[in-house]
Amino acid sequence: MTIKAGEFDHLVRKLGLETKDTGDRHAWFLHEGKIITRTKRSHGKGDIPKHDKIRTQLKLDEEQFRKAVRCHLTREEYIEILRHKGLISPI
């Protein structure tokens, strides 16, 4: 699966990740004041060749990542995935 820079940016907005532009575009998921996951991409506008690295940094399996890129994964569902993986404390 190949993703484009715009798809990455949409994913970042959809999941509510915080961002900062430096030499790269950094994004991180903040939950209750704590950084849970972080990733980055270059500022280019084309395909992102190493999307597997982004996928693993976001703690998603291939199916979850595809769902997220296709906008079928909500922020709440992402939080549940992270809870299931023990990265966020249960309610």
Q: Could you give the distance between the termini?
A: 34 Å
Shape: globular
> Which secondary-structure class do the elements indicate?
alpha+beta
Discrete helix count: 4
Note the main sheet: 3 strands, antiparallel
Low-confidence stretches: none
How many structural domains in the coordinates? 1
Q: What Rg do the Cα atoms give? A: 12 Å
> Residue-averaged pLDDT, rounded?
88
Number of strands: 5
Oligomer: single chain
Strand order of the largest sheet: 2-3-4
Percentage beta strand: 25-35%
Percent of residues in helices comes to 25-40%
Question: How would you describe what is shown here?
Answer:
By secondary structure, this protein is α+β, with helices and mostly antiparallel strands. It has one domain (3-84). The chain has four helices and five strands. The strands form two sheets. The chain has a three-stranded antiparallel beta sheet with strand order 2-3-4. Strands 1-5 form a two-stranded antiparallel ribbon. The relative contact order is 0.20. The mean pLDDT is 88.
Spell out the blueprint of helices and strands.
Elements: E1 3-4, H1 5-15, E2 18-21, E3 25-31, E4 34-41, E5 47-48, H2 51-57, H3 62-69, H4 75-84
Antiparallel strand pairs: 1-5, 2-3, 3-4
Structure keywords:
91 residues, alpha+beta, 3-stranded antiparallel sheet, two-stranded antiparallel ribbon, 25% strand
Task: Give a quick rundown of the structure.
With 91 residues, the chain is an alpha+beta fold. It has helices at residues 5-15, 51-57, 62-69, 75-84; strands at residues 3-4, 18-21, 25-31, 34-41, 47-48. It is built from 4 helices and 5 strands, in the order E-H-E-E-E-E-H-H-H.
